[in-house]
Amino acid sequence: MDGWLFSFMTAAALCLLLPVLPSIYLLPALLFGALAFGYQRHFILSGLLTGLVWMASVGHWQLAWQLPDSKIRQVVVLEGQVESLLHEQSVQRFNLNVSGFDHQPVWQNLKVRLVWRKPDWPVKQGQRVRLAVKLKPPHGSLNLGGFNYQQWLFAHSIRATGYVVRSEQNLLLEQGQSVRQTWLDEFATLDLQHSAWLAALSLGYRGWLATHDWQLVQRTGIAHLIAISGLHLGMVSSFSYGLLVIFLGPVLGRFYPHCNLHKLALSGALLVAFGYAALAGFSLPTARAWLMLAMFVLLLNLQLHWRPRRLLLVCLALFILLFPLSLLTLSFWLSFAAVLIIYLVFWRWPAGRGFSVMTFISALVRMQLALSLLMLPLVAWQFGLVSLVSPLVNLLAVPFVTMLLLPLCLLALLALALQPDWGQWLFSWADRLLEYGLSALLRFDALSQSAFAVPHLSLWIWLCFALALIWLLLPKGLVNHAFGFVLLLPLLSAFLPSRDLSWRIEVVDVGQGLAVLVHRHGRALLYDTGPAYPSGYSAAEGQILPMLRALGITQLDYLLVSHQDNDHAGGTTLLLEQINVEQLLTNLGRCRYPWQTVWQGLRLQVLWPLADSEGSQNNLSCVVKITDGQVTVLLPGDIEAAVERELVARNTLSAQILIAPHHGSATSSSSEFIAAVNPEYVVFSQAYLNRWGFPKQQVQQRYTDAGATLYLSSASGQLRFRIDNGRIEAEGLRSNGLNPWYMEQPK
């Protein structure tokens, strides 16, 4: 059975790496094969085929409903229930479980993600609403090291994204506010200094945590403590079990002496844990933890003995059956890896008989060190960050949170529902405790080299590193440790000095905006910083900085800002705060003709604007030409046809690589300009289905007629040009042929 379960999970996970799904007409034959192999006791093959059939079926089901082409960016009317937990603000982002689409019932579960600016009423979880919206297929920027929004949408079964438009059809059909939303609203009225952290611990709501809070969490390695998951459910069930035994024991002993107190307390604790999981909104980590707890209690009550391996495999297989798309979430793999590591630790160093404080502390330290070490490859690969203080921080923070802070928060939350004044008083004590904890956390974070960034490395390198660590921890008599050191070689070789003489241009996928990175020998310059939005999100934070960390770039020699429009300069302030910039050049300062310099063997020239130029911000864009003598790239910002004619008259514009002016607007890319540049490659930096329709079809046609190869950042993702001795290699992250089926570019 174990072999079948393991092969089932392996095939389900590997199915997510396929470029295309098996045909839906092939699935019945594969299922028949799985049953036949199972009947013949070929359990490995049976499990593999079953896993493939299951995940392919889920994939086809998720892709069965696609937003009709005729409805894309057109006003449609949706009816449904608000799923997201929300607090009042001017811009609301929420998931809507749709029951009606354009006054027609929906035949399957349909979820969309919406933005509503200045909503007509306070939007709350649980409300039934009717909304007029404009939708488009799920899509997101794709950059090295950046957040994969499209994968996140698919993992959460979101079939479309869009925004609510002003309309008389926008109606609140039913108030229906959830208990969890009521608690959050009550929580928001409390006078607390650290309400964001306390809401995360108490309700699993992390919407109030700021960017600097998340950075602190990552650098100190305590993310698992602010997400309601296995650790929290384990503590809640343990406390519940103890209290039930204490209070029910005397009653049962007197009135029901034959009742099994142990089984009753276990079942009661499981119910309390279920309530706590519901309080956290039954997020995937919470549901996964409760499922394992339920299986553990069931086995105890039925007096069945399963080995830990069997229990783990059954729970994971059940979770894949119930929540198959969770395989696309990082939390699944972090939890899966953590459980495997704990199992490995107790197998490798079994606890001695009897209990003593020193034995308990020794086991706790050993487990924490093993978790920190063996989780390092996964964390480094995903976040590009390694926390050196994480082991010590967690040794102190885990008991502090689970034994003191968490019980106090839960007691305060219960009191808040019964008597708000008591809740305020208890939460004020929790606030004071948290103040001490955060002060200690900040002290650890302030230590020199508390955390350091690691450059982007291949997944296979990190897998070899993880296998090497596990191999070296196994007993000497079981394996030859020399092989473990061999597995370390790929990681060590990745940090050897590079002899690569090429230079690279990275056109960052920032949506409707522009950011272009040029780097060579670990040194870099950035042209434009992408857009920033009223919500606080910016492309600099979400895409550019993670990409720089992934490339191992710790400073910018030059930051050139073409002009002051938000889509080009929105991230400037944040970048100046987050990374060292040696020289800043803008079109309001030195980024004007005739500034030029030689940098890393490349000649940088500013061709426009002139010192006395006047006009719109677009036509005052800083136009930059970069060349190594053989290959030239032209960065024209948002100039329009009038400036293009001036440049054609004043300069030699010939360039092999051109970032299309003004994202492909019809007011730019004149025929004279295209003929003067004569580009081989043209890149349009634009958002998917943007409201301006960039790049315009006639503009694309002019470049195509000139013989250029065209790239759209919305279709290619981050686009890299590698230039080596006159040779140009171009590759887009989304269009490299290695992306799985669920990342297919929407049509």
Features:
single chain; about 750 residues; alpha+beta; OB fold (Dihydrolipoamide Acetyltransferase, E2P); 5 domains; seven-stranded mixed sheet; 26 helices; DNA internalization-related competence protein ComEC/Rec2; Competence_DNA_uptake; membrane
Task: State the strand order across the main sheet.
Answer: 13-12-11-10-9-21-22
Count of DSSP H/I helices:
26
Shape descriptor reads globular
Distance between the termini: 43 Å
Major sheet: size, sense and barrel closure? 7 strands, mixed
The overall number of domains is 5
- State the low-pLDDT regions, or none: none
Rg = 29 Å
Keywords: Cell membrane, Membrane, Transmembrane, Transmembrane helix
Transmembrane segments: 43-63, 288-304, 311-327, 363-383, 395-418, 451-472, 478-496
InterPro entries: ComA-like_MBL (IPR035681), ComEC_N (IPR004477), Competence_ComEC/Rec2 (IPR004797), Competence_DNA_uptake (IPR052159), DUF4131 (IPR025405), Metallo-B-lactamas (IPR001279), RibonucZ/Hydroxyglut_hydro (IPR036866)
Domain Metallo-beta-lactamase: 512-688
What does this structure look like?
46% of the residues lie in helices and 18% in strands. With 747 residues, the chain is of the alpha+beta class. It folds into 5 domains: 2-64, no CATH class; 69-177, Nucleic acid-binding proteins (OB fold (Dihydrolipoamide Acetyltransferase, E2P), Beta Barrel); 200-453, no CATH class; 459-494, no CATH class; 503-743, 4-Layer Sandwich (Metallo-beta-lactamase, Chain A), CATH 3.60.15.10. The strands form 4 sheets. The chain has a 7-stranded mixed β-sheet with strand order 13-12-11-10-9-21-22. A hairpin with an 8-residue loop joins strand 9 (503-507) and strand 10 (516-520). It is globular and about 100 Å long.
